[in-house]
Amino acid sequence: SSCRAMASADRSRSPRGRAEELFDGHSAQDIFEKSGNATGYTYDDLICLPGHISFGVHEVAIHGNFTRKIRLKTPVVSTPMDTVTEAKMAIAIALEGGIGVIHTNLSIDEQVREVMRVKKYESGFIMDPICIPPTMKISELDKLRQSSGFSGYPVTEDGQLGSKLLGLVTKRDTDFAMDRSAPVSTIMTKTDKLVTVKEGAALQEANKVLQESKKGKLPVISKDNNLVALMSRSDLQKNAEYPLATKDAHKRLMVAAAIGTRPADKDRVRKLVAAGVDAIIVDSSQGDSV
Asked: Are 3 and 48 in contact (CB under 8 A)?
C-alpha cells in the first residue's frame, strides 16, 4: 500500500478524483510506527502526498542510532560496495553526521589501511602521529607526504612515537630546500622553538594554546620531553565547519567495515579492531550462509 496513495493505477491517472480517494491509503504513522507491521518497503512502493505541518523545521530532530552505542546526528549510512565506500566516502559521510561502511572486496591489509585513513583524518589529539627520524632525507620525506597525505611531521630520536621530541618539520620548512638529499634535521624547527603542551592537558586547554600561538601543529610531550600526541590547527577548523560530524571519544571520525562469513574473516575482524574500526557489519548476499 502507499502512504496516502491512490487506491489504483486508474485513479492515479484520473485528472479528477473524489476528495475521499486522496486519503485511500495509510498514514506514515500507520506504516512506520505500528509494532506489528513486518512489511519492508523499497523505492516505488510508497507514494507520499505533501501536507501542512504545525511546527517549525528547526524543531525537527532526525538523530538515530546506528548501533546501541553509536548515535548518528544524520542517519545516513553508505553501503559497503566497492563502487561506493572506501576511505574518501566514509570521511565525507562521517563529517556530515552519518557513517560509512568500508567494503570487504579488499585484502585484509588494504581494508585496514582504508579504516586507518578515516580514523586519522581528523581528531582532537592525534594519538598515533606519523613520526620521522632526524636522519631521513628530504627526498624521502617528499615520498612520505605523497603516500600519507600529511604535510607536517614530528621528528623524534628513533622516528617512533614515545621517544624524545627533537623538532617538527612542515611543508614550509622544505619548500625552499635546494639539497633534497640533506637530512630533515638540517631544516626542522627544533624543540626549543616549538610551542608544546604537557601530557594530561585537557582538549579545551590545548585548543586555546594552539589558537593563541597561531601554529599549525601542537606537540603534546611528557615530563621527559617524549612525544605522546599531536594536535592540528586544521582539525579545529574542521570541528567548526562540521558540527554534526560522527566522532568517537578521542574526537576521531567513526567508521564501520564489512566482513564476509568465511573462516578467514576472523583474522580480518581482529586486524580491523586493532586498527580502530568502530563497528563490524556482516555482509552476506544470502541470509542462510551465516
From this structure: yes
